DNA sequence: CTGAAAGCGCTAACAG
DNA sequence: CTGTTAGCGCTTTCAG
């Protein structure tokens, strides 16, 4: 492979000039630039990235650390990040932690070794709890998961508010005994739980919750088991909310087994829209996330952060969209006396709100 | 950040010695090694990857180019490749082409620039058609898609055979008018079509096919439209086969709209198992692919190819697993006279067959 | 506007 | 077994 020296020789100029036109820098004579360009073409020259990176101390690489690549949410995030990154001539290194904090720490180390320009991270709870932006030698943008206290760029859903709206919807439809099944090992699960609690409290209803314990990999099965047990003990409520797509899946599996129909025998709602949510009986009511937008916003935030390292941290909160479907259809003869004074939803920390 | 010189100074040895212990090379005195190790610890030294790569001309990086990251098939492949790669201290650069040959060519160029150690590629049809391993300055392992003629390492499903078995299953269940909907823009679609044709021919049945045209991104909708039209024109057969998960999804959507039940009014089968295939009515009969294994095998093949550049190309053919479910339940009063002489399935080019 | 020259941090002969 | 040294290919002052 030709190198910069060959190009310089071929063009009859110095390697400095070649480097200059390569970098697209101004201040190069028109003829010089032409000759260099021709030589590059002629030799099919491609700059050596390792050498460029070594010398310039810039890798133009983004690290993307997601917690579960099998979750369609994160694959869509990856797609968005990649699209954006390659448009900006940056590379992406993708790492999947499978919700394992150890793997996560390992990959964060790897990012340091790679001297990436920045990282987009969906942190596990333990990492998020101790998260200090200053612990990392590169900019970090959090996606999907972020505490109110965390001081870092972040792009998240209005989890609490969405859960609130979802719960209120169920209440409006006439349901009262509403059970919330969630994953307490993720920040999103907790925030959604909070929204549910607020909604129930606002209406003077009693909360009922079930927690899906770690390890998250078995989410579907655990949700399944939880519902099966409720059935066995005849403790089923009027309605069920699953705090993410996997939990909803487990719930449906369990209900199927005992041939319980929704919404006739039990109503159902959850988070995350998937191809199959419309195909289940009368369709599942869900909060749909603007996933691609989230990934895109995160990348933009990161690129801006790389350009301006010291500007204050920004948080972008995107709104979930309530998609009402048959699984939460109105129960006949229902009244909604409690909703007269319809309190406003709880405030999320939305310094910068975009549309959904 | 400390560099190798700092470590050498701190340890009181030469940088050559440091480099040697870093590379884990033998022939370093015990005490020297100890001192170096301690210095590395003390300084929290991390070798500069760019410098290592520039000097050693090895990047230890695998390029993974998939055609559709939203397809669960490819996300699982990614997971497998990453797991394996990081176990072998290699990095992964992930690229998603969205079935766009131009993007694919672009990314293959990028791989050249990155001087990757090797690439795992699921090629689009145009690229596959012209595929010459010698066109690339790095080893390439094909996944999922591969012609019989292609001379390259590859890991694929026994597409033709699986489609054959799936079709025969439907015939055995008493179905005769079986329509095959497939995506002719992918090698897999074509091979599966071939298996279907052979099975039908073997039983003396007439084939009926519909082709989902490019662009593939709209697969679900196009499949949906195709079935809707069949319904309108009252041309529905006894059974439908979809050549991949997206097509099956489109079929189900269309059947739902007109409230056609399967298998009572029309039977259904397809490729790719997904979480929702069991939740649709009586469950969908599918060929399930050993996806993780495919990704793993591809990575192994690539690593071996990197180690032994000139060994002959190998092709690994993994078997799909027929998961019989309600959507293909036996039609009452069916006979299967044609299956007496049950011919063997067509031979796939399986130099090396693994278990599924 | 252009060129000469000094490294970036590391590996791998080679010499001792 | 260990140290010296010459680059890998490029960017970037600094002179001219």
What does this structure look like?
Chain A has 12 helices and 13 strands. In chain A, the strands form 2 sheets. Chain A has a 7-stranded parallel sheet, sandwiched between helices. A 6-stranded mixed sheet of chain A has the order 7-6-8-9-10-12, with helices on both faces. In chain A, β8, α11 and β9 form a beta-alpha-beta unit. In chain A, α1 packs across α2 and α5 crosses α12. Chain A is elongated and about 85 Å long. The relative contact order of chain A is 0.12. The C terminus of chain A is likely disordered. The structure holds a DNA duplex (16 and 16 nucleotides).
Shape of chain A: elongated
Which stretches of chain A of 5+ consecutive residues score pLDDT under 50?
A: 340-344, 348-356
Report Rg of chain A: 26 Å
Structural class label of chain A = alpha/beta
Largest interface: A-B, 40 and 40 residues
Helix amount of chain A:
40-55%
Number of helices of chain A: 12
Spell the H/E element sequence of chain A.
Answer: HHHHEHEHEHEEHEHEHEHEEHEEE
- Which oligomeric state applies? homodimer
| Count of strand segments of chain A | 13
């Amino acid at each position: 492979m030709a190198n910069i020296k060959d190009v310089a020789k071929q063009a009859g100029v110095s390697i400095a000039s070649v480097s200059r036109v390569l970098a697209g820098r101004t201040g190069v004579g028109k003829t010089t630039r032409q000759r260099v360009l021709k030589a590059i073409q002629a030799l099919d020259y491609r700059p050596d990235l390792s050498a460029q990176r070594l010398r310039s101390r810039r890798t133009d690489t983004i690290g993307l650390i997601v917690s579960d690549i099998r979750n369609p949410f994160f694959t869509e995030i990856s797609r968005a990040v990649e699209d954006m990154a390659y448009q900006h001539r940056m590379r992406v290194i993708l790492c999947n932690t499978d919700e394992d904090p150890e793997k996560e720490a390992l990959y964060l180390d790897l990012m340091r070794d790679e001297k990436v320009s920045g990282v987009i991270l969906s942190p596990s709870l333990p990492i998020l709890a101790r998260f200090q932006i200053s612990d990392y030698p590169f900019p970090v943008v959090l996606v999907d998961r972020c505490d109110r206290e965390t001081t870092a760029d972040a792009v998240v859903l209005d989890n609490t508010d969405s859960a609130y709206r979802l719960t209120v919807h169920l209440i409006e439809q006439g349901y009262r005994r509403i059970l919330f099944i969630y994953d307490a090992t993720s920040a999103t699960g907790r925030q959604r739980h909070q929204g549910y609690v607020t909604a129930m409290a606002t209406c003077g209803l009693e909360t009922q919750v079930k927690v899906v314990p770690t390890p998250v990999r078995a989410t579907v099965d655990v949700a399944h088991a939880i519902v099966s047990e409720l059935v066995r003990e005849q403790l089923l409520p009027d309605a069920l909310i699953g705090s993410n797509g996997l939990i909803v899946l487990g719930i449906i599996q369990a209900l199927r087994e005992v041939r319980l129909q929704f919404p006739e025998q039990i109503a159902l709602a959850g988070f995350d829209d998937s191809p199959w949510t419309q195909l289940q009986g009368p369709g599942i009511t869900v909060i749909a996330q603007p996933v691609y937008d989230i990934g895109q916003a995160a990348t933009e935030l990161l690129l801006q952060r790389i350009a301006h390292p010291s500007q204050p941290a920004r948080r972008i909160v995107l709104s979930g969209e309530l998609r009402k479907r048959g699984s939460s259809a109105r129960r006949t003869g229902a009244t909604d006396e409690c909703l007269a004074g319809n309190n406003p939803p709880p405030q999320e920390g939305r310094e910068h709100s975009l549309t959904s």
